[in-house]
C-alpha cells in the first residue's frame, strides 16, 4: 500500500511532455507513385529543353547514293527525339520499287513525283530529319525549297561505297562500279549549291559522325543561319 491507500501495482506512470511540439509537422513517407510522377515531370522538362535547342523545321540530308543518309538520319532522329523521313521510302510505299517504276514509266516521271514528295515533306511543320534521294537535287523546285532549311551534305568516296554498300540492292553499282563517280561529278555543283555544311562519312565512325552532326543541328537553333564549312 502507498501513503494514499492504493496498491502500488495499480498506479500508472504519468506521461512526460512530448519531445517535440505537437504542432510540428511529422514527415510522411513518400510512396513510389509520387516519386515516379515527380521523376517523369523532370524527364519531360529535360525533353522539352532538348527539343527547344533544335530548329523548328526540317533538317535535310543530301548526298550521293550510298553515302549513308538513311542510316545517319535514323540515328540523328533518335538522338534528337524527332521524326525521321526517307523520301525514297515514301515513294516506294506509295508507288512501288523505284527500279521497276523507272523501267515502266521513265526517269522524268519518277523525278516529277519525287519532287512532289519532297515538297510535301518540307512543308510539314515541326522539327524532323528528312533524307533525300541522291538525285532529288536535280529538280530546280527542290533546290529552291531547300533554301529555307538547314541542309547537311554527306560525302564519301567511290572506294568506300564499293567496300560497304550492299551491291545486291544496288544493281547500278554492281553492273557498272564507275557509274557512282560519274554521277557524283555531274551532281556535285548542285549538292554544293544547297548545302550549309558538309560531313565526310568515310573518315569517322557512325557514332562519332552522329554526334558531330547532332551538335551542328543544335547549333542552328542558336544562330540565324548562313553557309557552313566542311567538317
From TrEMBL:
Primary location class: cytoplasm
GO BP terms: amino acid biosynthetic process; aromatic amino acid family biosynthetic process; chorismate biosynthetic process
GO function term, MF aspect, one: shikimate kinase activity
Assembly and interaction partners: Monomer.
Stated name of the protein: Shikimate kinase
Keyword Nucleotide-binding included in the entry's annotation: yes
Keyword Kinase listed: yes
Subcellular location: Cytoplasm
Binding annotation for ATP: 66-71, 170
Region described as Disordered: spans on this chain: 1-52
Compositional bias per record (Basic residues), positions renumbered to this chain: 43-52
GO cellular component: cytosol
UniProt keyword terms in alphabetical order: Amino-acid biosynthesis, Aromatic amino acid biosynthesis, ATP-binding, Cytoplasm, Kinase, Magnesium, Metal-binding, Nucleotide-binding, Transferase
Amino-acid positions noted as binding Mg(2+) in the UniProt annotation, renumbered to this chain: 70
Pfam families (UniProt xref): SKI (PF01202)
Binding residue positions for substrate: 88, 111, 134, 187
Pathway terms, separated by semicolons: Metabolic intermediate biosynthesis; chorismate biosynthesis; chorismate from D-erythrose 4-phosphate and phosphoenolpyruvate: step 5/7
Enzyme Commission number, as recorded: 2.7.1.71
Biological role: Catalyzes the specific phosphorylation of the 3-hydroxyl group of shikimic acid using ATP as a cosubstrate.
Gene3D superfamilies reported in the protein's UniProt record: P-loop containing nucleotide triphosphate hydrolases
Composition bias, Pro residues: 14-28
Family from the record: Belongs to the shikimate kinase family.
SUPFAM superfamilies noted in UniProt: P-loop containing nucleoside triphosphate hydrolases
Cofactor(s) this protein requires: Mg(2+)
Co-factor: note: Binds 1 Mg(2+) ion per subunit.
Reaction(s) the record says it catalyses: shikimate + ATP = 3-phosphoshikimate + ADP + H(+)
Amino acid at each position: 500500500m502507498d501513503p494514499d491507500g492504493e496498491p502500488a501495482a495499480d498506479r500508472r506512470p504519468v506521461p512526460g511532455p512530448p519531445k517535440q511540439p505537437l504542432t510540428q509537422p511529422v514527415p510522411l513517407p513518400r510512396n513510389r507513385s509520387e516519386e515516379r510522377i515527380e521523376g517523369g515531370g523532370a524527364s519531360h522538362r529535360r525533353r522539352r529543353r532538348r527539343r527547344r535547342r533544335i530548329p523548328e523545321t526540317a533538317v535535310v540530308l543530301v548526298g550521293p547514293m550510298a553515302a549513308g543518309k538513311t542510316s545517319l538520319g535514323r540515328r540523328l532522329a533518335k538522338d534528337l527525339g524527332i521524326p525521321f523521313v526517307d523520301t525514297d521510302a515514301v515513294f516506294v510505299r506509295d508507288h512501288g520499287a523505284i527500279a521497276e517504276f523507272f523501267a515502266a514509266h521513265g526517269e522524268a516521271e519518277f523525278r516529277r513525283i519525287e519532287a512532289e514528295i519532297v515538297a510535301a515533306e518540307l512543308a510539314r511543320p515541326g522539327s524532323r530529319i528528312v533524307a533525300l534521294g541522291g538525285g532529288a537535287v536535280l529538280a530546280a523546285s527542290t533546290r529552291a525549297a531547300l533554301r529555307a532549311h538547314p541542309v547537311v551534305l554527306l560525302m564519301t568516296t567511290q572506294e568506300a561505297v564499293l567496300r560497304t554498300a550492299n551491291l545486291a540492292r544496288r544493281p547500278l553499282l554492281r553492273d557498272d562500279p564507275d557509274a557512282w563517280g560519274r554521277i557524283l561529278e555531274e551532281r556535285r555543283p548542285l549538292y554544293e549549291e544547297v548545302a550549309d555544311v558538309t560531313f565526310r562519312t568515310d573518315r569517322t565512325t557512325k557514332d562519332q559522325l552522329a554526334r558531330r552532326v547532332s551538335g551542328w543541328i543544335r547549333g542552328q537553333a542558336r544562330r540565324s543561319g548562313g553557309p557552313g564549312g566542311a567538317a
